Structures are given as C-alpha cells and as structure tokens.
## 1
Amino acid sequence: MKTTIVQTFSLLLIILIISGCGEDPQEQAIREKLDQPIFSTLAEEREYVDSLNGVRYYKDEWMLESNDSPLKDEVREDFTGLNYFPVDMNYVFRTRLHTFEDPEIITIGTTTGDNREAIRYGYIDFTINNEETRLYAYKFTAHRGTELEKYIFIPFKDATSGSQTYSGGRYMDIQEEIPGVVLIDFNDAYNPYCVYNEIYSCPIPPRENHVDVAIEAGEKKFNL
C-alpha cells in the first residue's frame, strides 16, 4: 500500500513538472501581468487621481499659453479650461492585446479628406457597464523607425459621441507594458485637434471602432 502511494505521488509530481516545463514563457508572463493589481492601496488610487488632475491642469495652461496650442487666438481670450468626466477608476484596467500575425495595411480617412496609411495591429476585448466590447488598435506606417512607433493608436466613437463628447470620436495612445498586455485608461481619452481648429487634419475612427457602450470617461465636448 505504501509503495502504491509513493508511486502515485511520484507520477503526479512528474506530470506537474512536465506541465510547467511545457508552458509558453510569454503566455506565462502575460498571465502574471494580467493578475497584478494596478493599485495596491487606496493611497495609490488617490495619488493617481491627483496626478491625473494635475496633468489636466497643466494641459489647460499649455492650451492657453503655448505657441503650439491648437486654440485660435480669439478663443484663448475666453478659454477657462477643457471639460472632463470625473476620474473613474472603473475605466482603468489591464487587458490582453491580441496582435495579428500578418497585420494588414489599411487607410484611415481624416477630417480634411486625405488618407493616412496604418497597420491594423490588433484588438482588445473588455467589458464596460456589463457590455462586452472590442476596439481595434493601429500603428501609422509613417511612424516606422521613429520614437512614435512604440505608440498604439485607438480611435473610437461611443454612445456619448455627439451628446456628451465630440461627435467625431476621441483618441487614446497606449503602449504595451509587456508584449501582449496593455494598460487601458479611458480617463486619458482626448479630443483631436480639429475640435479646436478646423485647419488640423484628424484621423476619423474606422467603422469597426464605433461601439454602442457609453464610455463616460476622459475629455468631453469643448465649450467656451
């Protein structure tokens, strides 16, 4: 009986060792990253909120004072700041980035009628307000070989577009934390420059990134 127990235990141990050795290291790294909490304490959450509000404050200063600001001169006179949804931690999460093995090159239209060439890089799946949602991610071919190549572009229209937010949609720029994992923060969603000045050429979110869910986070409509 003792011999049978020892043999059974040894067999289970061998199976566990073989299973562990056979796990894809990248898949293991992705799983471990997804399991990590974004904020470990309430103090970290408060620090994040304070930091984001600080970024918004300095963006307002930049919009008002910088020579590179998209605001028209006549608009600056009455500018009191951009409009945002309150910071909401429910819109901050990690998720898997599913990349395409053989990504296609597509053209994304702009507000001025020209087209920009982009790599259809991958997609993310997530749930907001109990609704399963998918957004596609792109990289502009013009950014190849530059510092901007690391950024992933996610333009989108949602159920707030045209009412609470800009009718043409909003943008997010993200990076992979590790290959296959991204941190999504819709509190960072921002308006394109053409909202403030029609001379700018802004990419229009492709139809596949028009979603029915209301993403009530990030920048709202621009009003003086």
## 2
Amino acid sequence: MNRFSIEKLSALPSAGNALSSGIIINLRLRYARNSSRFPFPRAMKKEAAESLWRDVSAALERYELFLDGGRSAYLPSMKRSEKIFLVERRILSPDMLKNALPSGAIFSSDEKYAVLVNEEDHFRISVTEPDEYSLRESSDNLASLERFLAERFEFARMKRYGYLTSCPSNLGAAFRVSALVRLGGSVLAKRADELLDSVEKKGYYVRGYYGEKSRYFGDVYQISTGDSPEPSGVGAVCDFFSSIAKKEQSARDLLMAPDRRARTSDIVWRAWGIMNSARLMSFDESLSLISLMLLGKNIGLDIPVADDVLRRLIVECQPAHMQVIAGGEMNAAERDEYRAAYLRRSLAVGAPG
C-alpha cells in the first residue's frame, strides 16, 4: 500500500469516478464502528490512536480491495494541501482537518472503498457508487470488509442498543445510506425549499457538498438517512432517492414548458457566457455555473461541451485541485484568476467536433 502524496501523483485521478451526469451524482453506504478495546475517539489518548492506526494499516495492507494501488493517508504526516485535496475528493471528512487526534484513511485505487480511522468513531467504512445497480454489487464487498475488521478489532456492541457509536443517532445497525444529488431544476423552478422540507420531514438529513456541517454549493446537496436502517433496507432508501429524482425531473420539465422555455434558456446561456469570458472565478460560482451547464444539457439545450468534461471540471475547480493542476501554491486571488482561465480553456477543448 502506498502512502498518499500529491507529489507522487503522475496525473490527476479521474474525476469521473463514481460520478454520473444525472440527478443522482452518486450513492454511498457507510458503517460506523468502534473497537471495544479503546475509549471512543473523544476520550482517546494520542498513543492509543497511533496504535489503532498502525494495527488497522497492517491489517488492510494486504486486503484484496486495497492491493491494486491502494493508498494510505495518515494525517499527522501530511501537508495541509494534501488533506484538503482528499476532502475535495470526498475521502476525508472536513472535521478530520480539525481533529487533534492522530487519524487517517485507507482507500482503494478507484476511491470507491475507504476506511477512515479515528474520525468521529474509530472506523467509518464506506463505498461510493454512481447508481443503485453498482451499489448493490459493491455492498457485499463492503459487508465483507466490515466483517474482516470485526474479526480483528472486536467492535463495541450491546444486545439492547446494537453497535455503540459516538453519535446516538447512529446506534443500532450504525449504517447509513446517502445520495449526492443535483436539484438545479427545483432551484430554478422555486420548488427546492418545498422538496427539501419534505425530505427532512421523512427523517432524512440534508447537508452540503462535503457532508455534515459543510456549505451548500450551487444546486448540489447530500441527502442521508437519519435513523440507522438495516443494510437489508438499502433498496427502500434507494427507492426514496429515486422519488426525489422524479420530483426534480418534474421541475425540469416545468422549466421547458412553453411559457418558461425562453427564461430558462436565457439563464443557462448567460451562465455559459460568463464561463467563457470571466477573468476571475471562485469555486462557489464555478460550481453553480457548471451545474447550470449540466442542467441545460439534461433538459435538451444544445450546450457545446461534453458531459464528461463538465463532470471533470466540477471536481477540478476546487481549490486544492487547482493548485495541483497549476503545479504550485497560490493565494485565493491567484486561484480565482487561474480557475477562470482554466475553465475557458477546458470548455474550448471540450466542445464536440
């Protein structure tokens, strides 16, 4: 297993991994677990955290999911830019950047499977896929990985409560399902608040682009189960996510109704004009504009750039990714200028024909 380092990247990892251009960008399954041999992370000593990291790294070094190009990221030995890069890849959680306890992540070469160590719990074990079909196939691998770790680290569990976790809402199966979704149609049709309110009333959490405690960027939201479902209930949760996608599609259809078509087209093409002419571009603005481009393509507008280019740019326009592409450190103003130029070049190259 290789230690993750930005300097060792021969090329930027594919931004298309586990991303779709549709309404549901990707789906994630996650187990939260704690070892009964150590205090939970909030009460854990540094030496115990280091010991757990070493033991987990050694155990997973030859596990089949991490054999082919697996990466190890131990935060105490990483640069801040490397940590932010992995947050942008949605491998590390934002909270891990503020974690005083030694923590880290082990993830597969395709970034689908990941084990976070000493985050809120001792273990966060997850898989990310672009659709329900792929997720069903990968869920067996995730369950096998969870069992592998359970055999070696004796997870904390009580008959009455199930698996014990730092957050009471995770008690029981300590299993969550989440979806990263684009709701641009609902935003433009002014239906987003109603839709998201209905989601929360069903007991689901609505979060930002990077998950819990993160900001909302553009029209991208993360929706996750509130109460911890049993793994056997994944199908029902995915059906709920599909119902959200249907409501979003209904809003998109409304945008192209005869009395709204011109206004919708104007908003999307104005976004296209800004993307192709702006000299300064923040990450927040770029994500909003790229999302509008994808929305335009999805509702039938002839936006002259390929879907895969737009999906790639959503990832690449993030601050740490911009610095990797530029090949050096930049301040915020320099990044905004570089991002604008990079987006203009990419859209020109990405045009069909």
